[in-house]
TrEMBL record:
GO cellular component terms given for this protein: cytoplasm
Coiled coil, from the record: none
GO MF annotation, one: phosphatase activity
Protein name (Swiss-Prot/TrEMBL): Putative hydrolase
Native organism: Phycisphaera mikurensis (strain NBRC 102666 / KCTC 22515 / FYK2301M01)
Amino acid sequence: MPTAVISDIHGNIDALDVVLADIDRRKIERVLCLGDIIGYGPDPVACLDRVMERCAFAMMGNHDFAVLFEPTSFNTSAEQAAFWTRRQFEAEPDPELRRKRWEYLGNLSIRRWENGTMLVHASPRRPINEYVFPDDVLTAPGKMEQIFSRFETRCFCGHTHVTGVFTDEPDFYPPADLGGPYLFHDEEKCIVNPGSVGQPRDRDPRSSYAIVYDDGEAGDDGKGGPARVEFVRLEYDVQAVVEKVEQVADLSDFLGQRLLEGR
């Protein structure tokens, strides 16, 4: 069966539930999460519970790490959100459920391999907190060369909240430039970013996730094809989340307003 890859939920249960409903509609049973389940958003506990229930595994994101330990190099609004998020988990009255959630966060993977594909939150070089930006292919070719040297064929990562594919030319292809699914090539290394479920930053406010098909697997149209990745964008009630954020005194209103513009 195909695999759905989600990332950067950031406590946005409204977006996550829309994405999971689409995954269910496509009858995709296996879901992987690349981290940042929590942080920024108003429903961190619900998002973690949903990931625990639905995902085969999840990676450790920098916001997950910050809630577990301490937020370092965070701006003020992100730091405040991390401390507020921690208090939501600590407020759980059921000690067994509270332990289960903290244990799950503490056991999130740093690096993982699936059939030769590396999975991380941020980058193969620094898996929790290094950004791999589209502009890096032009402004930091040495950085890109080092990053591509850390894996053999493919890597999936999130963190930037920008959907697309990096190749080892190096180059970056947003979904609009691909004109359809990206076909994997044996002779080419690539890094795939599925975008963000709960806080896109590519000026498109719709939720983003990716579907990975192995060679011969049929897509939503019932047709098979070569190994490939397909990007999916979905609308959800962004305004409802903006209002939730505004109702929490310890969350900056900016964390809601940015969702309206996908930034």
